[in-house]
Task: structure prediction
Amino acid sequence: MLKIYGADLSSPSNKVRMAANKLGLKYEYILVELRNKQHKEQWFLDINPVGKIPVIDDNGFILFESDAIIKYLAKKQNSEIYPSDLRQQALIDQWMDFTAIHIGGAMSRVLFNRVFAKFAKEEVDEMSLKAGLNFLHRFLPVVDKQLKDNPYIAGELFSLADIALLATLDPAEVGGVSIEKHENIVKWRQVLKKQAFYLQCHKDYGEKMKEIFKGKI
Ligand SMILES: N[C@@H](CCC(=O)N[C@@H](CS)C(=O)NCC(=O)O)C(=O)O
Result:
């Protein structure tokens, strides 16, 4: 059976679980506790030498990098959420790259400095936090405009790019990133967060975090 190694507060890991859910795949979810440094243990490095989650083991085929993983799973299922049409696929790739590099990169900076730094006993990097907030300030309106003009991020059809964006924006509230003013993102997100593929992962990222940190946040 497909194995997904991940953690509940890792957005790239959640992205993989959401995609597998949407594709109707059965899988074993193997929790890798980053707080306990399990990703640096030899058993895990033997699976993924870069020491990061998520990683999948599909009957001995090992793959890391969440976007590569979800494309592989969708192609394997011949799913319309990653269509083979050249231009449709190129647009999905475009929004997935944009999400990973610009939105995800910025969200990680904000989340790390505002939430995880204290747990990791690391100093807050104000420059990094500011850069993250600036990028989100610049790019979230672009995403909002795209979702005003289209029902889904890559156009008319729901795709892997929606799953990637949904998982990437998941920690917005806990990171104090205001999404409320982007009404098209809000509407799009409300609809998707009610769907089974999301709910099979969690009800809400913030609630999951509270459950894990038990009042320490
Ligand atoms: N670009 C990667 C990012 C993976 C990543 O940074 N994962 C984090 C958890 S969200 C991790 O494993 N961190 C542990 C470390 O870097 O030591 C992907 O999309 O899969």
Remarks:
- Strands lie at 2-6, 27-31, 55-58, 61-64.
- The longest strand covers residues 2-6.
- Residues 10, 12, 34, 39, 51-54, 65-66 surround glutathione (CB under 6 Å).
- The chain has nine helices and four strands.
